[in-house]
Automatic annotation (TrEMBL), chains A, B:
Record-given protein name: Metalloregulator ArsR/SmtB family transcription factor
Gene3D superfamilies in the record: Winged helix-like DNA-binding domain superfamily/Winged helix DNA-binding domain
Keyword ATP-binding found: no
Keywords for this protein: DNA-binding
One Pfam family per UniProt: HTH_5
PROSITE patterns: HTH_ARSR_2
Lineage per the UniProt record: Bacteria, Bacillati, Bacillota, Bacilli, Bacillales
Domain HTH arsR-type: 1-91
Length: 112, 112
DNA sequence: TTTTAATATTCATTGACAGGAATATTCGTT
DNA sequence: AACGAATATTCCTGTCAATGAATATTAAAA
């Protein structure tokens, strides 16, 4: 369940990779195009794309010499769902600490 | 802008820290309680909580001896907004590769 | 078939970070 | 003031991952 979330997060938690992802929002791109648009060396670009691919964030399509990388939807949907599990929390009364402090106070004999 | 996103992602991209975050969904907790509920040692728990705090994911409230850690909303909202910038993309025609391949084909003289 | 473009991979180096053990700090209690 | 509970910090060590340089692979073009 949240194992995939970790994979997604780790893959995204790297500046250049995040840039790549944001770039790919505009549409599928070739390795060379990604490298050029972001000012990266080709080998590093390939390596980052491989990490993103392993994490299931992008898919590849071979076309002659070139490899076209394209965003996948699933991991982003999963991440979005996971974030959704928090939105319920905000609506609850957990955003006020006051009553929790009171509850805390009773737990054992601490004088404030 | 996306600098904060990176901080958020890096902080979350660690199994134990993600567990802590998910635990704190249920409400604010003491360091000791977090450690106990997740079977972690106290020092590691403190260290993870410090990272989460530096990233702005949790806030602390000192109460006598204890420190109560509580989730922050902002970073999660930001992450959610960032994810939102993708949802537009899915609706576009980028999910079909076909026409992109055609467009690609014209770029320079490659025979398929 | 030799060359050239596009991409992937390997290797070595380096820096960041998590884990464990030990210790320091803070504060309430007696 | 001394003790004990709760938490933070330091030090050390091992591991993983990003980087750069060089090289290998694949396919197209001449």
């Amino acid at each position: 369940m949240s194992a995939n979330i970790i994979a997604t997060l780790s893959a995204l938690a790297e500046p250049k990779r995040l840039q790549i992802i944001e770039l790919l929002r505009e549409g599928p791109l070739t390795v060379g195009e990604v490298a050029e648009r972001l000012g990266l060396l080709q080998p590093q670009t390939s390596k980052h794309l491989r990490v993103l691919h392993k994490a299931g964030l992008v898919e590849v399509h071979a076309m002659a010499n070139r490899r076209i990388y394209k965003l996948c939807q699933l991991p982003f949907r999963e991440l979005d769902e996971w974030l959704g599990s928090f939105q319920q929390v905000w609506e609850e009364r957990f955003d006020r600490l006051d009553e929790f402090l009171l509850e805390m106070q009773g737990k054992d004999g601490y004088q404030t």
